[in-house]
Fold these 2 entries.
Entry 1:
Amino acid sequence: MIEKIITEPLIQLKVKATDWRDAIQKAGSVLVEDGDVTPNYVDEIIRSAEKFGPYFVIAPHVALAHAPRQAGANTLAMGITTLDPPIDFHNEANDPVRYVFTLSAPDADSHLKAMQEFVRLLSMDGFYDVLDRATSGQEIMAYIESTVSTNRSDCNG
Amino acid sequence: MVKVLVACRAGVGSSLMLKIKLNEVIAEHKWNMEVIHSSLDELSSFDGPIVVTLSDVADELKEEGVKKEIVGIRNLLDKKEIYTKVAKALQDIGVN
């Protein structure tokens, strides 16, 4: 499931950004190009963070950039952008941000399974090693696919 | 059965992940809890005692004077943090 939502064109590695707004714009740009979200969706992520603070920095070095679906989430998709150098998002507990996952979820529940797999991925140290070391989106996709299929066969006994 | 609301601004991203992790913690500790997941808009109609959310949202809810046990999580992948803080909330409302 998650490997259908994160696709290679949505992965960008070692992106340089001037600040957190620039990082969000760059992270969101691939989803806009792919038609998954409208440009307004990306702007809304920034507006919300300006208003409420960096609510989407969810764990050390990890941002899950997203906004309410009404802002312009068209299709279920997730982008991965790694930042080099990492960028300060003004979230004391979890700064600096190295990994931005941009989520587009057009409805509230259909992505539960994908998010479960995503949480499992984020809970694996190996995932961050791959994100740091990969030189292509293909390597990241290969890791995600192998992890997901291993876990599925585990579950099936 | 204790009702817990897991909420975030959008109701589709961080709160869903937090719900997944909280459910793992609940299962591990066999807590008798019902987890409801939504955006903050539904807070006013929530009739349970505990709200779990990310720490910056939690600070804001506390400032607003929301009359619930508010639990703020900094790292939503950290089950130890979730366990410690929710266990304390349960204690504070007189469960466990």
Entry 2:
Amino acid sequence: MFIDSIIRIWEDSGFVAMTWQSVVMIIVACILVYLAIAKKFEPLLLLPIAFGILLANLPLTGMMNEPTSTEAGGLLYYLYLGVKKGIYPSLIFLGIGAMTDFGPLIARPCSLLIGAGAQFGIAMAFIIATAMGIFSPQEAASIAIIGGADGPTAIYLTTRLAPLLLPSIAIAAYSYMALIPLIQPPLMRLLTTDKERKIQMEQLRKVSKLEKLCFPIIVSILCILLLPSVAPLIGMLMLGNLFRESGVVERLSDTAQNALINIVTIFLGLTVGATAVGTVFLQPKTLGIIFLGLMAFMFSTVGGLLIGKIMSWITKGKINPLIGSAGVSAVPMAARVSQVEGQKASPGNYLLMHAMGANVAGVIGSAVAAGVLLSLFG
Amino acid sequence: MKNLHLFICIKYIILKRGVKMSISESILVALFCMLVVFSVLVILWALIRLFSSVIQLIEKNNEKSL
């Protein structure tokens, strides 16, 4: 009887139900945990994503099970509803808006053109994905948005257009964002001359509080009237920014940029990771996504740099083209890379605030691009 | 108006073709996407320049009157 019990426990355990896909995904999860902790690759999201992958691929847990007439659904199923309904990415944008100072952008609004140019990677990745012939237009659009270098936007669009690709796209997007200090500098040196890299830019003018207050309202009205599909992202981004700039809702601003964004990040990362089940993730398409994600990032950097060069030429050398690469919306990493490269060319060169203008312009640009793709393919 | 016409054409192509899209159609979609992004951000640029100028003028007048 004792032996029968042991046999029954063994047969009911997850060990018997393990497949080779589960084993591979558990190894992938462990690698991502290592990258997040030891290499500090976007740990805030990669760590919960990695653990979500681990939980989802341990068999028989039922954590992602849908509810039935006799049983409630799994924990992660209910938490995942926030991703499925587009709630978490929008709330993360609320926190980002509360953390972001749009002052550099308001002081130099032509940075918006750099933000627009840096969406070139989305366009190129879409074309290449379609040319590969293995992705539908909706899947190609979801993969292309990786070029916007904006995690919440990528998740928001992918849940609507190609939910099965969500784990691959999320992991690719966040991994490449962490690799920006490796991906961008060679392209920056290739596309700019030594003379251009040494350009010192004039200090930005002081932006008044009234301008900073009007900005989120004007952006919301314009973007949402033109592209209603972008309302959840742009609306939340600008609401968060209004909390910050109004100065009368410190508690709300503090909550949005701390507690709220941290809670949502945990739920988002965990549940996105939990969709990376072996049978879905271990497909040839995943390799295609990894390749296309890199292409998207590279072309976005190129697009931003080319616009930066054009602006430098038009202004007769007043703008350093290095800030062009900051048009990808990986805030503030991309801006820091511009700063570092600028200082390598000329130690006294301080490009950070100029690059931040382009960086935050990229956030708006990628949200607008997502809105366009959603209007076309949603 | 031109953008709207282009949008309707592209939407028709997508609905008609369903799952598959040719490279030329994908180039058209990509160009349209970039066109809209640039248009929106250029309009935003113009609006920011405008409201910044107006606000700076108002603040200058307020300082003078003080």
